[in-house]
Specification:
Elements (H helix, E strand, L loop, with lengths): L5 E4 L6 H15 L4 E6 L6 H13 L3 E7 L3 H10 L6 E5 L7 H9 L3 E5 L13 H10 L3 H11 L2 E3 L6 H8 L8 H8 L14 H8 L6
Parallel strand pairs: 1-2, 2-3, 3-4, 4-5, 5-6
The structure holds NADP nicotinamide-adenine-dinucleotide phosphate.
Length: 217
């Protein structure tokens, strides 16, 4: 079995030296000598210096690929204008009720992979009971979770669904034996409410507060 290990630099560790130290600490805690992917968790202040440290880590072979999370188009434009290496991926909140259509188009146009966090919206707002999703699921003899994950895959999105249940882990990977039709995809496209379940990456108060809050060890 092979693993693909991703970690992220947290908001209070932004800056060149801080990022180097945070990376070493993560490697040590994981007991690894390199990571597959390292991301900037949120676009807090000093993300340019953070990225420059990540470029060095990649050059040194300590991380295979570097990317970002919760970056909007304007953050990406700023980052790419001031640094050398383009992010390989942007991990952002995305689910049928918050589809990020414009950002997804921007990412595809710039050859940056789109990764969905909370790909099933954490099950909130009754998403697993949604009548449109339930009807599509029944038609394909699949579950609503499988339909949502398949929708992401057909949008060329990288998905990281979370479950603590073995049966659900199996269910969530069993999505490669069916295909949503264009009509299914269109119906799901219409479910977008534009409403996030978590913070907006431009929420300065959140960014400032978390930049002063270390994660627990
Ligand atoms: N970059 C960021 O800022 C950021 C922010 C938030 C989350 N994330 C990451 O995104 C990943 C997933 O996000 P998430 O946990 O927030 O949301 P999610 O994967 O959309 O939803 C997880 C919820 O759905 C339930 N679930 C999973 N599979 C199911 C199934 N087949 N049927 C019914 N319910 C199911 C889980 O319950 P059980 O566990 O009880 O099965 C859990 O309550 C995590 O790795 C997380 O670390 C990243």
């Amino acid at each position: 079995m092979s693993f693909f290990v991703t970690s992220k630099v947290w908001n209070c560790d932004h800056g060149y030296d801080e990022t180097m130290a945070a990376f070493d600490k993560s490697l040590q805690k994981l007991g690894l000598d390199y990571l597959d992917l390292y991301l900037i968790h949120w676009p807090s202040d000093h993300y340019i210096e953070t990225w420059q440290a990540m470029e060095e880590l990649q050059k040194a072979g300590k991380v295979k690929s570097i990317g970002v999370s919760n970056f909007k188009e304007h953050h990406l434009e700023d980052l790419m204008a001031h640094t050398d290496v383009k992010p390989v991926i942007d991990q952002v909140e995305t689910h049928p009720y918050f589809q990020q259509k414009e950002l997804v188009k921007y990412l595809h146009d710039h050859d940056i992979a789109h990764e969905a966090w909370s790909p099933m919206g954490r099950g909130s707002d009754g998403i697993f009971e949604d009548t449109v999703l339930k009807a599509i699921a029944a038609k394909h003899h699949k579950t609503v979770a499988q339909v949502i994950l398949r929708w992401h895959i057909q949008r060329k999105t990288v998905v990281i669904p979370k479950s603590i249940h073995q049966a659900r882990l199996k269910e969530n990977i069993d999505i490669f034996d069916f295909e949503l039709t264009n009509e299914d995809m269109q119906k799901i496209a219409e479910l977008d409410t534009g409403k996030r379940i978590y913070r907006d990456p431009d929420d300065k108060e959140f960014l400032e507060k978390t930049a002063n809050t270390p994660l627990p060890d």
